[in-house]
Design goal:
Largest sheet: 8 strands, mixed
CATH topology of the largest domain: Aminopeptidase
Mean pLDDT: 97
Low-confidence stretches: none
Number of strands: 15
Number of domains: 2
Structural class: alpha/beta
Shape: globular
Helix content: 25-40%
Radius of gyration: 20 Å
């Protein structure tokens, strides 16, 4: 059975499975709830996982019947929605191509549990934190938020071998040595302060290598490696420490893609490749080429005004919800010698 993924196959199918009811950066529960309800009940098992701090629904979806258990969640930071859009593209793929060899391999070998919006209160307010001002990604130890408890309880019940933790990163990040934006960044989280390369981290790195190899054929030099500094209260670090190999995917910037519609596509490609790799592999020990992925760096600004006879000025977009509308405003961020920085857009003034 041929289960290889090619870019030509992905480029052919993606326009057909992209969920066009989700667009832009402000994705809320009201956007996804009807989509969740309309999923094929013969393919997906839908449950209400629980309620948010403000009593909004948090859903759990189960797909596949295989022995390899996987858990995927998105929007634990409410204002990081690219992963959620990519998940619904992925759901559409399984509905439309359930008999394809790629889908069949995943469905037959894996059981996947999805939480497609962990923080619906933060999503509505377009904030990183939940309704009680708690960063769910720094609440893995104290479990102060009800959303954090739901995530941890699900982890304990499912006992997944692999997890995918979906986030967005700021437009400031580039790929070290490439002068390119970090369109997608990966991380195999550390388990303790020394950043020891444990057997679990090796397995996490192995899956990331497969995803990176695919992306390099379509966005070469635009894939970065997120810092593996150990955060004692972070979700990925703690889940990895508990023995659940946790793959962090950070969706970043692609040229002129401030709505992150291109990036969601690359996020979908990464997820599908990662799931297929897990489904078809039993040995995840190869890991060293993970370190060939360049580090992220903070090299970019959204706009730089460059002047001949005075200091450059850098601007960043600031996103807010104003009168129930998503508003993105360019704000002055830094002034000075910015020769070491790159603007996603640059304007040169001859004075």
């Amino acid at each position: 059975m041929n289960t290889s993924i090619t870019i030509s196959f992905l480029e052919e199918i993606y326009p057909k499975i992209k969920e066009d009811k989700l667009f832009g950066k402000w994705i809320t529960l009201s956007d996804i709830e009807p989509l969740v309800s309309s999923l094929n009940k013969n393919l997906f098992q839908l449950d209400l996982l629980g309620k948010s701090e403000q009593n909004r629904n948090i859903f759990k979806l189960k797909l596949g019947n295989g022995r390899k258990k996987i858990m995927i969640w998105s929007q634990m930071h409410g204002n990081e929605s690219t992963g959620t859009k990519a998940l619904f593209d992925l759901f559409n793929f399984f509905e439309s191509y359930s008999e394809h060899n790629i889908a069949k391999s995943i469905l037959d070998n894996c059981t996947i549990t999805f939480i497609p919006m962990l923080n619906p209160d933060g999503a509505l307010a377009y904030t990183r934190v939940n309704a009680k001002n708690i960063d769910l990604n720094r609440d893995a130890v104290d479990l102060l938020a009800c959303e954090s408890k739901l995530l941890r309880n699900t982890l304990d019940i499912i006992n997944p071998k692999f997890c995918f933790n979906l986030h967005d990163q700021r437009t400031i990040f580039g790929v070290e040595g490439k002068n390119q934006p970090a369109t997608i960044s990966f991380l195999a989280p550390s388990e303790e302060e020394s950043r020891k390369i444990t057997s679990g981290r090796k397995e996490t790195m192995n899956v990331i290598i497969a995803m990176n190899n695919l992306l390099q054929s379509i966005i070469p030099n635009q894939v970065g490696r997120y810092t593996d500094e150990f955060y004692p209260t972070a979700t990925g670090d703690n889940f990895q420490k508990l023995g659940h190999n946790t793959i962090l995917i950070e969706a970043g910037h692609y040229k002129d893609d401030y709505n992150r519609e291109e990036v969601r596509k690359f996020n979908f490609y990464s997820l599908l490749k990662g799931l297929l790799h897990i489904s078809t592999s039993d040995n995840f020990s190869t890991y060293k080429s993970y370190f060939d992925i360049p580090n992220n760096n903070k090299q970019f600004f959204d706009v730089i005004h460059r002047y001949k006879n005075k200091e450059d000025i850098a601007y960043q977009y600031e996103d807010k919800i104003i009168d129930n509308q998503f508003v993105s405003t360019l704000k002055k961020h830094q002034e000075g010698n910015l020769k070491e920085h790159i603007g996603h857009n640059e304007i040169v003034f001859e004075y």
